[in-house]
Design a protein that fits this description.
Helix content is about 45%, strand content about 25%. It has about 130 residues and is an alpha+beta fold. It has a single domain, classed as TATA-Binding Protein. Strand 4 and strand 5 form a beta hairpin. Helix 1 crosses helix 5 and helix 3 packs antiparallel against helix 5. The relative contact order is 0.22.
């Protein structure tokens, strides 16, 4: 993970399938999707082109609220986000902010740090399932 906390995984699937698999994985885990932002559609609305690029904003208030209670500025990075995008070569990728980076950014420690570790493991597994075979 580079110093900016951004993690990018390559998907084994096309854009539409990757997005569907991610949505399904979130639904299966009962993780709320608060927003779905289709940046390519937004670009098209103003006459510009953009390769497929969709942001899902999701989370679980039971997990996120204690982090915000511990350090309220954590709310700038929560809920979590995953960007599904297609690069110039046609490869599909999923990028997200590592929860451990978010924790370091906001100096989350103790019990909040334990929550972040569990959150990080769960998020990584979910995204690997969505992008994998």
């Amino acid at each position: 993970m580079p110093g900016n906390g951004l993690v990018t995984l390559q998907s084994a699937h096309d854009f539409k399938t990757t997005l569907q698999r991610l949505q399904h994985a979130l639904d299966e885990k009962r993780i709320a999707v608060f927003a779905r932002i289709d940046h390519a559609a937004g670009a098209a609305d103003v006459g510009l082109s953009l390769r497929p690029t969709t942001l899902l904003v999701f989370g679980n208030p039971t997990a996120g609220t204690p982090l915000m209670q511990a350090v309220q500025t954590t709310a700038i990075d929560l809920p979590l986000k995953a960007l599904v995008w297609q690069d110039a070569n046609g490869a599909v990728r999923v990028s997200y902010n590592a929860p451990t980076w978010i924790a370091a950014r906001h100096d989350l420690r103790g019990r909040a740090g334990e929550t972040v570790a569990a959150l990080a493991a769960g998020l990584e597994a979910l995204l690997r399932d969505a992008t994998g075979p």
